[in-house]
Amino acid sequence: MVQDLLKLETLHEELAQRCGAEPTFAQWAAAAGVDQKTLRKRLNYGTLSKDKMIKSNIRLVISIARNYQGAGMNLQDLVQVSLQKCFAMS
Fold this sequence. Notes:
The chain is an all-alpha fold. It has helices at 2-19, 25-32, 36-67, 75-89. It is elongated, with a radius of gyration of 19 Å.
């Protein structure tokens, strides 16, 4: 569902560039080939899925950082460095 959200966001950006202005929600839905209610559901579900994925990844980073906690850095520093590397990759 996160991939679907990214596709919808990309479509929105393309519409904005083509139109030279922010597209209406109806235009966005039409370009996606769905009605407005369906687009809203897909956006909401995609956003919830993205949030869940981010939270899971943060928990994973913290779990991995705990394994290196005795290497002379405190947990907060390890998590911060790990998160910075993750965001630099994306």
